Amino acid sequence: MAQYAFFDNKFVPLAEAKVSVMTHAMHYGTGCFEGIRGNWNDEQGQMYLFRVADHYRRLLQSARILRMELPYTVEQLCDTTRELVEKCGFKEDVYVRPLAYKSSEVIGVRLHNLDAALTIFVVPFGNYLDVTKGIRACVSTWRRIDDNMIPPRAKITGLYVNSALAKSEAAANGYDEAILLTREGHVSEGSGENLFLVTGGRLITPPPYDNILVGITRDTAIELAKNEMGLETEERCVDRTELYLAQECFLTGTAAHVTPVLEIDGRPVGNGQVGPVARRIQELYFDVVRGRNRKYLGWCTPAYSNLVKA
Ligand code: PMP
After folding, report:
1. What is the per-residue pLDDT for 2?
2. Which of 10, 61, 195, 302 makes the best surface tag, with the fewest CB within 10 Å?
3. 39: closest CA among 252, 292, 213?
């Protein structure tokens, strides 16, 4: 399959999308990015991009925090992405990675007086975590970085060292994923996912002020729980021990979809099985993202102008 990237304001073969070793963002983490799913619908021969405009709104917010001026509107970014995905023509789930970065080839730590560039590429991408069986997680010894350190509500490349430290520590200790606490000890989120608990029949998730990335899948889960299950989500501070007492826990994210967490720090969550709320939200979510639920088609952008026979 031919792979292309949007690079230097045009579509080029992926192999030609290269930057200099002197690129500012390579040294100082001065980039911001998004992850957008293209979900392949085999029956229809269509690829649905999920909530692509919401992702680009967040990218422009991240860029603003980095004092980066990108000469694109959300609409232009959505159109370019659709065109790029169509050009690549994959017939399986994909991950679209837009990356805006300080492209000046200079030494010097700062945000000002630097050029910015944007690239977008597409890769085939299956499941990131085991969505069917569920996963085992641990509370990380690494704390989640604060808004006044590197703002987590922006998806800044340099910030992901915090996530990477936690993820690799979890993997080294035999867990699938890490859960990070804030400096105050509140539950924040997974290394690349937001976290939900079900306790006493209530759906609970940490608030933005506990240093989460305000996830688009998180919002999707909140909407589906409310509209389709009559279940309101409480956004509030969550203590560590609530993880051990919850009936259910699940993670949400573009890569992770809706992933049940069956064990935390060696303790079973609830009865250690995938719970009914996580299962139902997952079913609803998968129908929605593959364009199978008419009510939510507004969240799905078909990428292919001509349907592809599988
Ligand atoms: N938190 C972090 C740290 C993430 O990297 C991600 C993935 N983008 C999420 C949460 C989930 O966000 P979304 O649902 O928008 O992908």
Report:
1. 78
2. 10
3. 292
CA 281 to chain centre: 17
Using a 10 angstrom Cβ sphere, with 0-12 exposed, 13-18 middle and 19 or more buried, the burial of residue 59 is: buried
Q: Ligand 1 centroid vs 106 CA: distance in angstroms?
A: 31
Q: Pick the range with the lowest mean pLDDT from 74-83, 120-129, 157-166, 246-255.
A: 120-129
**Could you tell me which residues are beta bridge partners of residue 1?**
none
Average pLDDT, rounded, for the chain: 97
Q: Exposed e or buried b for every residue in 218-240, given b needs 16+ CB within 10 A?
A: bebbbebbeebeebebebebbee
Query: pLDDT above 70 covers what percent of the chain?
Result: 99
Q: Which amino acid residue places its CA nearest to atom 2 of ligand 1?
A: 192
Task: Return d(Cα 34, Cα 15) in angstroms, integer.
Answer: 21
- How many angstroms is it from 310 CA to the middle of ligand 1? 30
Strand pairing category for 4-7 and 10-13 = antiparallel
* Residue whose CB lies within 8 A of the most ligand 1 atoms, among 144, 254, 281, for a mutation test: 254
d(CA 91, CA 28): 36
Q: Which token pair is 63?
A: 């860029």
